[in-house]
Every structure is written in C-alpha cells, then in structure tokens.
Amino acid sequence: MNDVTSEPLPILPPRERDAHKGDFGRLIIVGGSRGMAGAPAMAGLAALRSGAGLLSIATPVSTQPLVAGFSPCFMTIPLVEDDYGLLDYANVVDMLAAREHFDVWALGPGLGQSEGVTELVAQLYRDVPRPMVVDADALNAMSHALQRNPQALAKPAGPRVLTPHPGEFARLTGVAPGGSLAERAQAVGELCRRDPSGQTVVILKGHQSLVGDGNRYAVNGTGNPGMATGGSGDCLTGVIAGLLGQKLSAWDAARLGMHLHGLAGDLAAKELGEVSLIASDLVGYLPAAFQAR
Ligand SMILES: NC(=O)C1=CN([C@@H]2O[C@H](COP(=O)(O)OP(=O)(O)OC[C@H]3O[C@@H](n4cnc5c(N)ncnc54)[C@H](O)[C@@H]3O)[C@@H](O)[C@H]2O)[C@@H](O)CC1
Ligand SMILES: Nc1ncnc2c1ncn2[C@@H]1O[C@H](COP(=O)(O)OP(=O)(O)O)[C@@H](O)[C@H]1O
Ligand SMILES: [Mg+2]
User: Fold this and answer.
1) For residue 256, what are the domain limits?
2) Is residue 195 situated within a structural domain?
3) Which residues lie with the beta carbon below 6 Å from any ligand 1 atom?
C-alpha cells in the first residue's frame, strides 16, 4: 500500500503580504464537557499552530471558562447543557444557524455521549455545507445515529473527514481492532462508501494509521508509540481542521495532517529522548514539524 507521501503532499502556498486572518479559515470546534475541557483545547491549539486564521470553541456553559483559560486566542461559544453538563437539544437550532458562518467545523473532542449530543451531531453532520472533521464522541454519536437511521452517513452537505481510532471504528462498523493492512483498508473503504456522494474520507488511527476515500488508500509512515497518550488524537483533529481552513481538500488535509502530526511526535520523542510523551509536548512540536525539511 502507498505511503501518504507517495502522491506528492500539498505545499501550503506562501502568505501574501496583505494576508489577513480571514484568509486562513474561521474554524469552530464543538467539544468539551465536564471533566473533559482539555480535549477541545488541545484540538484548538493544534488548529492554531497548523495555521488557522480564527478559532471558536463551542462548549457547554460550565466548561466554557475552563476551555477559554487554555489560550487567549480561543473564542468560546456557550452551549446549553443538561444537569450532567452534556449538550441539550436546545443547541441544535442555534448551531445550525451558524452553519454558513464558519469555514471549517470539527466535532467531538471531549463532547461526551447523550441524546442531546447524538441529535446535535447527526444534524450538523447532515446539514453543514462546509468541510468537517468528525472525531471522538461525535463518531460515537454517529454510531448511535446509524442505529436509528442507516443512512445517517449518506450524502452530507459538505466534505467529511472521520478520524476513528480502532475502538471508535469498531463501534461505527462492527469491525474489531486488528487485522492486516489490507483488511483494514477494505473496511475503511466500505465506511467511506456509506456516503455515495464520495465526500467522505476516513483515517483509521493507531500504529500504521491509514487513510482512504473509497477509491484510494495510503498508510502513514511517521509517528511512534510515544503518541499513545490521551490527547494525541484531539491534536490530529486540530491539525486537519487547520489545513482544511487553508483550503486543502479533505484527502490532502488528511494525508498532510497525518504526516505532520506523526512528524511532530517523532521530533518530540527525539528531543525528549524517550518514546513516551504527553500530548502537550506533541502540540509544542507542531510548528517545527511544519518547517520544510
Ligand atoms: N484531556 C481530555 O479532555 C481528553 C479527553 N478525551 C476524550 O475522551 C473521550 C473518549 O475517548 P477515548 O478514546 O479516551 O475513549 P474510548 O472509550 O472512545 O476509546 C478507548 C478504547 O478504544 C479502544 N482502542 C483505542 N485505540 C485502540 C487501538 N489502537 N487498538 C485497539 N483498541 C483501541 C480500546 O478499547 C480503548 O479502551 C473522547 O471524547 C476524547 O476526545 C481523550 O481524548 C483523552 C484526553
Ligand atoms: N503506537 C503508535 N504509533 C503511532 N501513532 C500512534 C500510536 N498510538 C497512537 N498513535 C497516534 O496517536 C493518536 C491517538 O488518537 P486517539 O486514540 O483518538 O487519542 P485521544 O482521543 O486520547 O486524543 C492517533 O493519531 C494515533 O495514530
Ligand atoms: Mg480520540
């Protein structure tokens, strides 16, 4: 199977002297819940370090101040929550009203699981006409949505990049973790083809992460087991969203995002001299990973 670099990786164009932040994407991350404020924050830091122009994080009211505290660059949007700090149905209308305002959406990091989350995610997935990264609890929400409506992944209003780890992939597809590269590629292709409009790209994460779009496949050659730590996947979500904001296609943003994310992990491991690292180290090495090698 080809490496993600077999097909030339996209090069981000030089920035015009008169560039402004609107040129590099207005991103929104929908994530966070009580006890999981870090996930959307790590995704947000990774998105900004990947070049995003503007970033808002929509998160339940009780989590909003915690998320905002991670970076002065974060703008935050409060979401109505239920008694457990999880999203309420009430958010669906407001968030759908925002569907034209943001250039790129990323759903799921730390979002938690509830009826309100499933309802919100399923409608945003279907109706937002912009590129969207779907990760973590948004993938779990789509697993629940598929039980009610087997067409929940079909014909979204815009390009989708799904980023399941093997556990989330198993919930979405029933395909257990493990299997050969070819078996995993086949299962990824089948998941992509649940969307006959051909707008869905899937990254199956872990050792030998692979990306597919239903016709093409590629395996990622960067990364290391030091990245097997909470928050690494949240970072990848932010990197891909940041690249989508700079007008890369879903396929190219996925390939370049995987490559750079793993490269940052390799730089961090090398610098720290140890395989195990924490996700905040990984975020710190993203700018270095973006330097032309
Ligand atoms: N600091 C934070 O706020 C963090 C929040 N997180 C959030 O926590 C929520 C739950 O996500 P988690 O992924 O932690 O929990 P999940 O329960 O969704 O997945 C963990 C399970 O998936 C399976 N799995 C994962 N990777 C695998 C692999 N490579 N091979 C085989 N099995 C594998 C294992 O059974 C593992 O126990 C998400 O919303 C996520 O964004 C996590 O990202 C961790 C950090
Ligand atoms: N052994 C490994 N080798 C290379 N990359 C890994 C390894 N383990 C995990 N990763 C990477 O780290 C990230 C883990 O994602 P995920 O499990 O969603 O983390 P979290 O949800 O805790 O942020 C993925 O991008 C995965 O490819
Ligand atoms: Mg994850």
Assistant:
1) 21-292
2) yes
3) 36, 38-39, 108-111, 136-137, 165-168, 177, 206, 230-231, 233-234
